[in-house]
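User: Please run a holo structure prediction.
Assistant: Happy to. Please share the sequence and the ligand.
User: Here you go; the ligand is zinc ion.
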Amino acid sequence: MKTLIQNGTIVTAGETFEGDVLIDGEIIAAIGRDLPRDGAEVIDARGKHVLPGGIDVHVHLALPFGGTVSSDDFYTGHRAAAFGGTTTAIDFAMQAVGGTLSQALDTWHAKSDDKACIDFGYHAGITDLTDHVMEEIAELPRHGVASIKLFMAYKGVFQVDDATLFRAMERARDVGLLTMVHAENGDAIDILVRQAIEAGNLEPRYHALTRPAELEGEATGRAVAMAEVLDAPLYIVHLTNEHSLVRVQEARMRGSRVHAETCVQYLFFTKDDLARPDFEGAKWVCTPPFRTQKDRELLWNALRDDDLSIVSTDHCPFFFETQKTLGRERFDKIPNGIPAIEERLKVLHEFGVNRNRFDLNRFVALTSTNPAKLFGLEGRKGSIAPGYDADIAIWDMNREQTISAAGSHSNVDYNLWEGTRVRGVPQQVFVRGRLIVDGDRFLGEAGYGRYLHRSCRAPGRTAKARPAAESPLAALQA
Ligand code: URP
Ligand code: ZN
Ligand code: ZN
């Protein structure tokens, strides 16, 4: 089956131009002006923008966490993603303590394979680096897994020690994998949390107060130092603040193989949101916590300046009424995580592009092209080009929408952006040539989403060297 998307404004990370896109089966067959119809079904995209489908490299669907399970499964989460213009999501197959990586992959494939509606992949989440797991890391490329993830926080749950992180990073480097790190000093945070509880400081806002930005910065610096000693590729997940950012900026100026994402919510909220009355602040409890207005602005600038490479979501939703309330008596029992998979592109477009923080090409780079490049999907996804998968979102940049929980598709009962007005909405969304969202209609199908065998060519050096006088670390210390 062929589809011809005619007369749209095609946007990639590098170009914007008027033209047609011919889809043949699952693949983009041609791009040009006045392409012949050739029996294809025609979609008139005049006045619309034709963007590559978004790639969200950080999501947690059906994750057992905090005494409960994140409330979107692979069907509801992928459906929500599709309505937001995202066509690929990479999740985490988490190793159980005492378990193996291949067991983790089996467990997660059982959750995903007959529910997935968009294409998906897995990072291998390592919690217990046994000799067997060291061997398994070398087998990950065969399973299509191009990245491992370790946590420097969540003591007693996912946290690993420095020796584990160092050894895993070295092994990953040797087999061409990218190491992702949740960088917070979990030992120090654990003490701060206990002290807060003992002092009777139990409300949601203490979640932010017991996880200071300095401890995220310190852990980021530690992970960066290990990566530099090993000459290993490193990806810092969900970076939130200046202390962490300067470590990444410095590393990138040194030309290290260091990359980082922020998640869209960190561009919008602050720790004050956790102090909302009547336990409502629990809706904003995620880790790392929200920071300050100044940090938010620095993150926006870092996205523009290529100090941050990707905007993901860390989508990990929990119902307010039945799950967040597990922590009504004390903040450390509130399940950590927020929903954002559907909102990511819409709010980033409104407050990034419409408000002139960066242009539409940079928007595509941050949300689709860079994710594909860093996570082993280059040449297949992340752009609109002949031979690429026909993952396409046709955006109506004139259509306005008010974001609400009622109008969104995640399996959750609140929305952090409730009432926010955006101009620019994905209208039609294709995954590998199949139309799965058409306006308000979902045409996707459980099981259509395909597991992606990603290629393992971990990213190389950054080329950002700037004069020492411009050093952000020097500025911070001044
Ligand atoms: O609050 C969060 N981020 N929940 C998911 C787990 C993680 O740290 O990514
Ligand atoms: Zn994390
Ligand atoms: Zn996460």
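The pocket of zinc ion (ligand 3) is lined by residues 58, 60, 314 (CB under 6 Å).
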